[in-house]
Specification:
Elements: E1 4-9, H1 30-39, E2 42-48, E3 69-72, E4 75-78, E5 104-108, H2 131-137, E6 142-148, H3 150-163, E7 167-176, H4 183-194, E8 197-198
Parallel strand pairs: 1-2, 1-6, 2-5, 6-7, 7-8
Antiparallel strand pairs: 3-4
Helix pairs in contact: 3-4
Bound molecules: pyrazine-2-carboxylic acid and zinc ion.
Zinc ion is lined by residues 48, 50, 56, 80, 83-84, 109.
């Protein structure tokens, strides 16, 4: 059994052109992601999965607009347009994504009061999603990440993966970012400094 897994982050309709929180050209990575899926024995998907009225939505905070920030008990939280609401079409995987091979789907952001960018920990950096235990119990030691968005869910997942003891690489050509105030460059540097291999 291979000790490597591919982790495909949030390739959902709301993060693709036409979606509620569209990442520019987000759908253009899908052919490459599908090729990666074909090459790995083990594939994990993540799915951003918020209840309506989630605390990361600007619409939940009176007087706030998307991309402003708010102080949460766990720190500063960027506010987003309503997106990836449980059970909606926007939360579904993009139709072109060949996801059927995936062995597990990790849903995140389902607790009303806390957001979760990382596939490993919620934004308090304390509450685990269970992914680390799942991978370790299955003998996975190395993970490769791709998906959306480079500067949020991919980057936070990669950094947590390294800190959880996984050899970690990110295929940048198979990622696209949101880029708020230079966040792609900043998070690329942070990933490098954390020991993530960028390819
Ligand atoms: C994401 C912002 C809010 C992501 C998810 O997948 O990068 N970004 N929710
Ligand atoms: Zn979200």
């Amino acid at each position: 059994m291979s000790s490597e897994a591919l982790v495909v982050i949030d390739i959902q309709n709301d993060f693709c052109p036409g979606g509620a929180l569209a990442v520019e050209a987000g759908d253009t990575i899908i052919p490459l992601v599908n090729r990666l899926i074909g090459r790995f024995e083990h594939v994990v998907l993540t799915q951003d999965w918020h209840p309506a009225g989630h605390s990361s939505f600007a619409s939940t905070h009176s007087g706030k607009s998307p991309f402003e920030t708010v102080a949460m008990p766990y720190g500063e939280q960027t506010l987003w347009p309503d997106h990836c609401i449980q059970g909606t079409d926007g939360a579904e995987f993009h139709a072109a994504l060949e996801w059927t091979k995936a062995e597990i789907v990790i849903r995140k952001g389902f607790r009303p009061g806390i957001d979760s960018y990382s596939a490993f920990f919620e934004n308090d950096h304390t509450t685990p999603t269970g992914l680390s235990g799942y991978l370790k119990e299955r003998g996975i030691t190395k993970i490769t990440l791709c998906g959306l968005a480079t500067d949020f869910c991919v980057a936070f997942s990669a950094i947590d993966a390294v800190n959880s003891g996984f050899a970690t690489e990110v295929v940048l050509d198979a990622c696209r970012g949101i880029d708020l105030g230079g966040s792609i460059a900043a998070m690329t540097d942070t990933m490098k400094a954390a020991g993530v291999k960028l390819i």
